[in-house]
Amino acid sequence: MREAIVTWSEWWLVRGLRQQDAEACRELIRRHHRAVYGYLRHMGADEATAEDLTQETFTRAWQAVERLRAAGSLRAWLLRIARNEFLQLVRRARPAAHGPIALPETADPGPGGHEVVAIHERDSLLRRAVRSLDVEQREVIALHYFEDLSLREISAVLEIPAGTVKSRLHRALERLRELLGQEARDDAGCETIERRRAGA
User: Fold this and answer.
1) Closest CA to 69 of 16, 156, 11, 23
2) Domain boundary, last residue among 77, 95, 113
3) What is the pLDDT of residues 61-72, one digit of tens each?
C-alpha cells in the first residue's frame, strides 16, 4: 500500500529524501522524532528500547521512501512503521515475557507541594491502567489521545476501517473505566486523558 503526503512542505521533504539529501533526513527526524518516540513509550517500550525502535523506524522510512505518493500524512506513515517495529519486538519477546512490556513509573516529582504529587499520582494510575490494556486497545488510546491522530489517520496507521478504530477506542475507554475503579466511574481517569489531549 502506497501512503500519501498531505502538505506541500511534506511533498518537498519527501522529494529531498528520495534524492538522498542528508538535510531532508535531518529535517524528517526533527519534525517527527518526538511523535514516534512518544508513541513507542505509550505503547510500553522503556526509554532505551523506544529510542532504538525510533532510530530503526527512521532507517526503515529512509529505505521505503519510494512507496510514498503525493497526498497523505507522513506522521501516520512513520507511526505505522514504528508500530510494526514494536509488534515485531513483542513477538520476539513473548516466549520469555510475563505480560505487556512494562512502562516505567512516573519519576519522583521532587518538592512542589501536594498538588504536584497528586497530579503525578493520577498520571501514574492512568499509565498503569493503559499498560494493562491489550495491544489493540493500547495502540488506539496512544494514537488518538496521546498522539492526537484523527480516526482516519489511525485507520491509515493500523490499516483497518475507521469504524473498527472507533469501536476499539470505545472498548478501550470502557476497559479503562473498569481498571480505574471509582475514579473511572466518575470519569476522572478519562478526563485526565482528555485534558492531556487538550493540552491543559
Assistant:
1) 11
2) 95
3) 888 877 766 445
